[in-house]
Amino acid sequence: MDTTQTIDNENAIPDSSEPKQDRPKKENREAWFNANGVAHTLNKLGLGFFSPFVRLAAGDEPAKQVREIVISVTLPLFAFGVFVGLWTLASFYVKTDSLALPNPSQTWEAWQGILAFAEDEKLNAEKFDLRMQERIVPMESALAQANGELGIAQTNGDTGAIAVLQQKIAEIEAQISKYQSRKYVGPPTFFDQIWISLLTVLVGFLAATFIAVPLGIMCGLSRYFNIAVNPLIQIFKPVSPLAWLPIVFIFVTALYSPSEEATITRSLLISALTVTLCSLWPTLVNTSVGVAGIDPDHINVAKVLKLNWWQRLVKIVLPSALPLMFTGLRLSLGVGWMVLIAADMLAQNPGLGKFVWDTFQNGSLSSMAEILCAVFVIGIIGFFLDRIMLVLQRFVSFDEQAI
Amino acid sequence: MSFIELKNVSKGYGSGQSRTEVLDDINLTVEQGEFVAIVGYSGSGKTTLMSLIAGLIEPDEGTVKVNGELVDGPSAKRGLVFQNYSLLPWLNVESNVGMAVDQVYGADNRKTRRERVHDSVGMVNLTPALMKKPAELSGGMRQRTSVARTLSMRPDVLLLDEPLSALDALTRSVIQDQILDIRTELGQTIILITNDVDEGLYMADRIIPLSIGPKSTFGPEVKVDIERPRDRAGLNHDERFKTMRNQIIEYLLQQKEEEFAALGSQQVELPDVKPLDLTKKESHTFGWKRQVASLMSTKSSQN
Question: What is the CA angle B162-B222-B74, rounded to 5?
């Protein structure tokens, strides 16, 4: 932050509660860093929670900041405490013949178990790689030897020996690449499944965006197009993912046959497209509202400047629709993440939904605790996805009033 | 031949039952370099008149000619400054002005265009705010940006559609002087629409009042033959100024009276209510207590 920025911020946000005598202190903190600027940036990034800490570090009204921090820490902690208490209480009563609601400490143990399993699998994979390496090393020395012999044979011009050696080299190379391509095949860990889920939702969300944004723009630009497709939108919008899935299943099975090593497997695509079908609506509707609701003054500007159709679209219509479009995208990603779990369960896509379903079917003592862990993880990931979209939304919105 | 020429122009909106005639038989000639102010009540079709000259809308009857050519669409030669600024909120001052420059002087190289932008912004003294977005600017600064955007296209005619109505009195006088300075420098023809008679008298060569709509038309014009530069403070004591001011205001007031007379039959009857007698003791209790008290009293009177 340069100094002019500092001055601007001080002017822009006059702090009426700050007494005049505090001026020397203010100079002090300007010398270190611009607390207002940093706090503003944090707020914009959706990390407003941390801004009292920053202001405290800068020595800006310590008493007020401490009070802010105490409030923002203690109240959520208190609510969390109440929640854990109710949960513990419930764990005494919610029991069936085979299953029981685990209490918080059992859940924590299950989480440790999940972590330990992942660690174990990582070690196993490393060991496997090491074993493969051990087999490759002697082959590589054999290869080097054969290459050396080939060189001698070539200088001697011994055509028979060259042919034999070349064949030998090819055989060894084939074997090495076979061992190199061997990957450890163990059961997927929880983190593999998180990764698959994120990949699935990303594919589904991107597909939804590529469909919804152009459609929304067309709906917003053309009244006739909007009238034509609106009934379809209204009918398909409330359909549940469970109903879409069989239809998506037919389409994908009929039209998509990936190789075995492909990252995007059939089940992943089925899951992703179900996510797409359920999550494209908020983006579609918001984009069309944003495009249709353009300020008539801006249209007048476009007329006076004699912008052609394309320039109007790119320079006036799209920028002014961008904030609403991103509001739609944020809602879409939220819906997508929610739908994903159900889609994973049904499509047997090895993501978090399948984890929950398999664990439930497994029915061991720790199953319910592991499912609870998954619930927390799903929630936390959903929260972070929403935060990312919020930051993007704030970045594109020009009135800085996004909530 | 006059520079701007409106002949028998009429314009209405809507059709059938809901049609309203806004302008009726408007005739206006403006010479090159002249500064004309048009005053009138809100709703008298001032913005419609401006849009006609700018080419945003077409007249139902009559012709609009600028520089001998029939107006058939917007042009960079006729720069319109909007009442509500109409800046693009996602662009900073430089880009807002730059958009107009790119559009009109797209053939020039980047550096020349940038200089043009900076010149125009400098003309309205906004250079320090070049990188700011409209949301960070005050109302006056926004309107100055809008003026800079229009000036950057180097128009022959400046069409100012109530540009200062939304601003406070101090900012208003600053921008008035800025516009006059720019006019001295560049010498454009200017048409200013305003609802402030003093503003018109201070700035213009000629003031034309517009009658109350629907079917507005021009009233008797007043030539402001007060030498420039005019002294804002001294003007109030100038006899010529006073006479002109009265002349216009009288016309406008007379218009209002005629409107009232026309609506006479539709006058709303006022309710017959007596004010509270504050000297009586019980009426000193306001708020809910009084409401309850009055409710009780009506109940008891019903009984």
Answer: 40
